[in-house]
Amino acid sequence: MNFFETIVIGAGLTGLTIGSLLTEKNREFVILESDNKIGGRVKTEKFNDEFLDVGFHVLFENYPNFKNFHGIKKIQKQYFKSGFKIKVQDKFYKVLNPLRHPFGFLINNHFPGFSNKDRLLLLKLLLDKKILTCKNIEIINFLQNYGFSSEFIEYFFRNFFGGVFLNYNLSVPMEYFLFIFKMFAFEKVCIPKEGIQTVAQTLSKGITKNSILLNSKVKKILNNQLETDSGQKYSFKRLVCTDPSIELCMDSSINSNVFRDITYSSTHCYYYECNVENVDEYLIYLLPDTEEIVNLYFRKANSGKYIISISSMGACTDQSEKKISCEIQKIFPTITNLRLIKKFFIRKALPSNSKYFDYKDKSFLKYSKNIYFAGDFLSYPSSNGAIESGMRVVKELIKLER
Ligand SMILES: Cc1cc2nc3c(=O)[nH]c(=O)nc-3n(C[C@H](O)[C@H](O)[C@H](O)COP(=O)(O)OP(=O)(O)OC[C@H]3O[C@@H](n4cnc5c(N)ncnc54)[C@H](O)[C@@H]3O)c2cc1C
Fold it and tell me: Atom 48 in ligand 1: which residue has the minimum CA distance?
């Protein structure tokens, strides 16, 4: 049986953060990953020279935890325009963020339902520091009480942030909502040119190849040892699990069912290829009057055609696929040669049970004497949250050595 000081289960962003920091600190460890590649929920597939992310992902260039990993800063990125385009009453309106596109904002800053009062309140909300104290209020109620018009709440907040949180009720903690709201206002929004998986590859760079064992699904965990589905046995001094479902592998003597009611939101992502004129590249389109489409964006492919990336939260059926094609043709009548090139269904996309978020202000859980859980589900559902959790659990492990 192989022995390791620390075993990490999962080579997603949390597991890779842990591996990267333990490598930096010269600690002995191994990461066991059930998949045949690293990245977990950050995955990219290649289609005819195009990098297609498995689910629509964006990053903020200055996510606070990226500053600890210089490689991430150096990733080649494609920037989004800060703002959105919305179709209301059969007309498109472009709204640009005044903080990032002051001139564009002078021309592009209106749509029916976006009143002057809403504009002022947006500014006030951005600068308001006091609201951080009211944690347990529902976001939609809060926005209503703050004075935003119901049209603006529906068209902007529900549509834009519903797509970000994969949840139209915006049922996330106030602190997290404000964090993301301010990141969109003040920071550059981007995606890596070679796909979101570049973030995982970058985090893994410092980790030696033989410290990550792929195709190693853990199926049984005891106090100091575990077994994979191929029958490999490992013993450990400390174990970090980065997915709540791993709790199901715990022997009944240690399983305390902490994560029994964890929930995830799901999403679909469709990639189409087409010819089209007069569309904005790398700008988020909001389409509140469609049934299936949450948001979409256009980008030009190497072939000269456009790729449309579409997010949806409805059921993923043949019917919904047909509906999406019809909706696109209806919204953009100048589109020709529309062709679905790839679709993904992500059943477990974002953890949605906020009772586990920022778990006890620590972002990780000490499960037993020597077993820990870490991951976005214990922090916040984002790349930044996953890295945060990984960093904080490593800090704890190192502290305990002293
Ligand atoms: C569609 C989608 C869109 C998103 N959009 C954004 C966005 O725009 N911006 C943003 O910041 N974040 C976004 N996120 C969130 C971000 O991707 C996640 O928060 C982050 O990737 C979570 O990383 P993790 O390591 O905590 O979890 P995971 O990536 O889930 O990693 C857990 C790993 O554990 C492995 N594993 C599980 N069980 C076992 C076992 N028994 N044995 C061995 N291995 C096991 C899994 O295979 C997996 O690799 C999005 C996520 C999705 C899915």
Answer: 40
CB 202 within 8 A of CB 194: no
Give the rounded distance of the alpha carbon of 307 from its chain centre.
21
> Beta strands 233-241 and 264-275: pairing type?
unpaired
Rounded to 5 degrees, φ, ψ at 199 are -65, -45
Q: Is the pLDDT of residue 315 over 90?
A: no
Residue 175 contacts by C-beta under 8 Å, 6 or more apart in sequence? 132, 135, 358
Substitution site in 16, 41, 184, 371 for ligand 1 pocket (most atoms within 8 Å of beta carbon): 41
Burial environment of residue 401 by CB neighbours within 10 A (0 to 12, 13 to 18, 19 or more): exposed
State which amino acid sits at residue 253.
Answer: S
Between CA 28 and CA 63 the distance in angstroms is: 29
Q: Give the number of other CB atoms < 10 A from CB of residue 103.
A: 9
Taking the C-alpha atoms of residue 299 and residue 235, their distance in angstroms, rounded to an integer, is 49
Q: How many CB atoms lie within 10 A of CB 354?
A: 15
Q: What is the pTM of this model?
A: 0.96
Identity of the amino acid at 300: K
How many Å lie between the centroid of ligand 1 and the Cα of residue 102?
A: 36
- The pLDDT value recorded for residue 359 is 85
Compute the distance between CA of residue 174 and CA of residue 146 in angstroms, rounded to an integer: 13
Q: Is the CB of 55 under 6 A from ligand 1?
A: yes
Question: Chain-centre distance of CA 394, in angstroms?
Answer: 22
Ligand 1 binding pocket includes 350 (Cβ within 6 Å): yes
Q: Pairing relation of β-strands 29-32 and 2-9?
A: parallel
Look up residue 183 and give its two tokens.
């990141």
Task: Report pLDDT for 402.
Answer: 75
Contact 378, 241 (CB under 8 A): no
